[in-house]
Write a structure and sequence with these properties.
Blueprint: H1 3-6, E1 11-16, H2 23-32, E2 37-39, H3 40-47, H4 55-61, E3 66-67, E4 70-71, H5 73-80, H6 84-108, E5 114-118, E6 133-138, H7 141-149, H8 156-165, H9 169-175, E7 178-181, H10 186-205
């Protein structure tokens, strides 16, 4: 690939990490460092929130699942839980809308040096091939446990269940290209992010 071509194709970065590792905090640090960030989950929340663009389609397919605040997650969850056909119908509404948002994001930031995609289940869904590099946000198990159990409504049982559905942190660390350690102070984590951005920019210029 010529450097000419590289100059106008952003470096595609995937950001992932298990629950409680500080991924959202790190994504915000990349954004502050000037890297455009696409957060698919946040896009879905906005489209399913008050006056969200997906509300009419979701209400039509699942009557009673929305109100003035947008999608009632509990009601919708109860309607689709364990029903493959209903889940597929919901995904048929949500996925194309997210794909359109992603395309708009790519087009709007075509001149950026790099783009960051915040994807919690990147390894679980096998999407790492689509990125130039994957960044894993990580911290020791005891730090992770402490953070997650401090969340409202979280129990040790819920935490264990979530962990059982996620690729282990140790495996993510092995499979990732870069690791951001969040067991340190926020200032040190920010320094790691800044250093990585510089490293990736320098590599991309070669």
């Amino acid at each position: 690939m010529s450097s000419d071509h590289k100059s106008h194709k952003p470096l595609m970065l995937g950001l992932t990490g298990s629950i409680g590792m500080g991924k959202s905090t790190v994504a915000a640090m990349f954004e502050k460092a000037g890297v455009p960030v696409f957060d698919a989950d946040a896009e879905v929340r906005a489209m399913q929130g008050p006056d969200g663009e997906l509300i009419p389609a979701i209400e039509a397919a699942f009557p009673g699942s929305t109100d003035s605040m947008g999608v009632d997650r509990e009601k919708l969850g109860a309607l689709v839980f364990g029903d493959k056909e209903k889940l597929a119908a919901l995904e048929a509404i949500v996925h194309p809308a997210v794909a359109a948002k992603r395309l708009k994001f790519l087009n709007s930031n075509a001149d950026a040096a790099m783009l960051l995609f915040d994807i919690p289940l990147l390894f679980e869904r096998g999407g790492e091939e689509g990125f130039d590099a994957v960044i894993v946000v990580s911290a020791p198990p005891e730090t992770q446990r402490e953070r997650v159990l401090a969340r409202p409504g979280m129990t040790p049982e819920k935490f264990e269940h979530i962990l059982s559905l996620q690729v282990p942190d140790s495996e993510k660390r092995e499979r990732g290209d870069h690791i951001i350690d969040t067991s340190t102070t926020l200032a040190e984590t920010k320094a790691q992010v800044g250093a990585l951005v510089e490293q990736l920019l320098a590599k991309d210029r070669i």
